[in-house]
Design goal:
There is one protein chain. The protein is mainly beta and about 90 residues long. It has one domain. Helix content is about 10%, strand content about 50%. The longest helix has 9 residues. The mean pLDDT is about 90.
Length: about 90
Amino acid sequence: MVLWEPVVLDLGWLHRAVIVRVRLDAVVNVRLLSAENVDSYRRRSAYRMIGGVATAQRLDIRVPFDGHWYVAVDNEGLAAGKFQVDVTVVS
């Protein structure tokens, strides 16, 4: 059984069109969440996000609008056990 252990990173205020680059060492779920949605994600209730299952070692996500943003990475529903993640904001 794989435990659902999310990593949630606070990216702070980002402007529209900034790239969030996520580097991974396993197939995991990557979600870019606005401040309005991160609490719902943590409670495991309905939320909106950008992303999904990342099958490549690098994933670039473009921020859709100005705001406070978070990246959540987890292995829910996937075979991955432990994983490592590195997140960089690219101007």
